[in-house]
Amino acid sequence: MASDRRKLIVVSNRGPIAFRRDEEGRRIARRGGGGLVTALRSLVTQHDVTWIASAMSDEDRMVAAEAGERAIEERARDGSPFRLRLVAHEPAAYDWFYNVVSNPTLWFLQHYLWNLAHAPDVDSGLHHAWKEGYIAVNSAFADAVLAELDREPEAAVFFHDYHLYLAPRLVRTRRPEALLAHFIHVPWPEPDYWHVLPRPIRWAIHDGLLANDLVGFHTRRWRRNFFQASAELVGAEADPDGGAVRYDGRHTTVVARPISVDPLEFDELAASEAVIAAEREIMARRPEYLVLRVDRTDPSKNVVRGFRAFERYLAAHPEMQGRVGMLALLDPSRQDIPEYAEYLGAIQRAARMVNDRFQHHGWIPIDLQIRDNFPQAVAAYKQYDVLLVNAIFDGLNLVAKEAPLVNERGGVLVLSENAGVHEELSEHVLSVNPFDVEGQANAIHVALEMRAGERQARLGAIRAHVHEHDIGAWIDSLLRDLDASAAEVGRV
Hints:
10-stranded mixed β-sheet, 6-stranded parallel β-sheet
């Protein structure tokens, strides 16, 4: 059965832990950052996992060198053992891979962020970064996977996200019998949008993914686009009704399985000393009503339009000025990339404009805090009256699942129809078009005026859905899908 413990090789750019030195010079391990790593941590508690990831810091690279390109034994927060193999890339290659190709090129493309009249310019720099960065880093990951398959030939390989589109083909070429899966945590654009990229690049991306036995997405919407793109861009035979793509003599199952979270973990976090202390601070400062957003400072998160919507709400409802405030807890994201640094500046300017217009008698409409403080975010989850998630496009959005689990005020979720999680939660949220600032302002008003009984019913329905469809159910469903795909071609 899929729920039985099994051997897995998990492959992602970021790992579950990162190493650094403390003030006394001792090496310490801390939890890896990013929503993907947070969501996948439960894998190590349920299965025998070898996790392959990039060595991100100087201390990570030192750990990799000491290990001699082998995996080391580590333990998760709950004591579960796992093996960690850190891949130390050549610094220039990794910079090209991450800061030129993965972000912003692929991220911007897959979230429909390009203003095509002005960007991107596909110049020699991008072509060079693709060849010397993206291909090189994917090759290094493939070599590490192959080495681990030599050790555990029966292990299933579980690739993740847009950083590793080429690695499955590189592994498949040398291990035709390997069991490979790849989960894409970002949107998949319609075929026409892929034509932003030169043909060799867009072809290699789809060719690489179709070397897997299983490809997974969060929504039927992204899955549908992948079927269409595979047919149009590489000539694959797409069978949406049968749930598969046939290409290069292979059968690839394509599924929609929205990822989730561990409700028990958030129950424990909500009761922790760090969260309770942060909650006291929020309660001491909060106005009568609290509108919350918890995001990265990523252009795809649409923070500036969210601030403008709150501004329009305050202008339309002067009676609420002084009674309602927005708390924006934003994790600074990818500030080495100019587009992200520029967007952070736009966020700060937008908040200042709202505050300069409306603040009075000590009341500041938008409390903007830019820092990585997860206990504070969980504390805010408990206290919101309205949660605003207005992403331009989002593969899923875990905040929309995390926050309702611990909210204590009958909080209402205002959710972008372009967030992947909208497919699951649409019946229980106030849906908004992420480009419609007036519509978002109206949704904030409706949420704040909603009767208590309806607020609680909506919140309870979201909470029940997440409890039923938790991270364990997601893992089990994907492993069943992988086993079924292997059985389809007679490999189990």
